[in-house]
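Quick one, tokens below:
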């Protein structure tokens, strides 16, 4: 697994380029702000988060899983399962853990303060999928390592999960148009852009739905699935009510959003 960072970066760049080109050719919604106004900060937060994780947590999730395998940590290192079945089970369990974590970050007021920076994007596109506050990223990494240790996920399973999660996060945040029939079929197997876009609505009931990033089944199973936004995808308002000024898309303003109590513009925001 020594080439794991190279593999992950290669997949990230390849998916980013393909999705960015796709949404440029077949956009679902008109943009509120230009890429020039949003992308520097959204991509800047990715660079900042990458450096922060390397500084605070020197081990990667894959390296941590390899250590767990060597030391026999977790459920899957205790029970005897075929390698393929163990990998599939681990990927599914980790995806469920991410779903539950996402619900938690909406339900707990302190965690929502961190997570709302992700929702404060006035548009939703390929860069939104990686737009998370550094403190949230650090907390998420700790929770992920705990889940890997408890589960006993193999390094192979964690690498597959990380690649899938990064790729699907970029895909399901993309501002791209899929044929309605294809979307109806795909959303039984993967979270589609139309499915996840509902989650970025300014309407509180819609924001608290469709929490899945990768696999769509958890929302259906736990009753958090919503098929479409009430206003329709073209007319729905994306974002949260407190941070709607274009200047809030600057990196410095994004970083301070968890620590500010700006008054909502209309009183219809989703602050918990």
């Amino acid at each position: 697994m020594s080439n794991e960072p190279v593999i992950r970066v290669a997949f990230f760049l390849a998916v980013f380029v393909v999705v960015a080109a796709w949404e440029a050719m077949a956009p679902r919604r008109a943009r509120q702000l230009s890429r020039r106004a949003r992308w520097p900060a959204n991509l800047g937060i990715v660079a900042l988060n990458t450096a922060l994780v390397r500084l605070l947590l020197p081990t990667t999730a894959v390296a941590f899983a390899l250590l767990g395998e060597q030391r026999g940590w977790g459920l899957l290192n205790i029970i005897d399962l075929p390698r393929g079945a163990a990998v599939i089970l681990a990927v599914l369990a980790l995806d469920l853990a991410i779903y539950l974590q996402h619900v938690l970050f909406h339900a707990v007021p302190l965690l929502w303060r961190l997570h709302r920076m992700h929702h404060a994007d006035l548009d939703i596109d390929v860069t939104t999928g990686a737009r998370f506050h550094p403190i949230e990223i650090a907390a998420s990494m700790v929770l992920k390592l705990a889940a890997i240790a408890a589960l006993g996920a193999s390094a192979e399973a964690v690498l597959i999960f990380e690649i899938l999660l990064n790729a699907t996060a970029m895909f399901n945040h993309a501002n791209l148009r899929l044929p309605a029939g294809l979307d109806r079929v795909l959303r039984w197997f993967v979270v589609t852009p139309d499915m996840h876009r509902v989650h970025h609505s300014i309407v509180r009931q819609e924001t608290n739905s469709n929490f899945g990033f990768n696999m769509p089944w958890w929302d259906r199973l736990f009753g958090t699935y919503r098929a479409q936004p009430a206003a329709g995808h073209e007319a729905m308002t994306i974002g949260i009510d407190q941070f709607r000024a274009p200047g809030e898309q600057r990196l410095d303003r994004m970083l301070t959003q968890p620590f500010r109590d700006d008054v909502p513009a209309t009183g219809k925001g989703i602050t918990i």
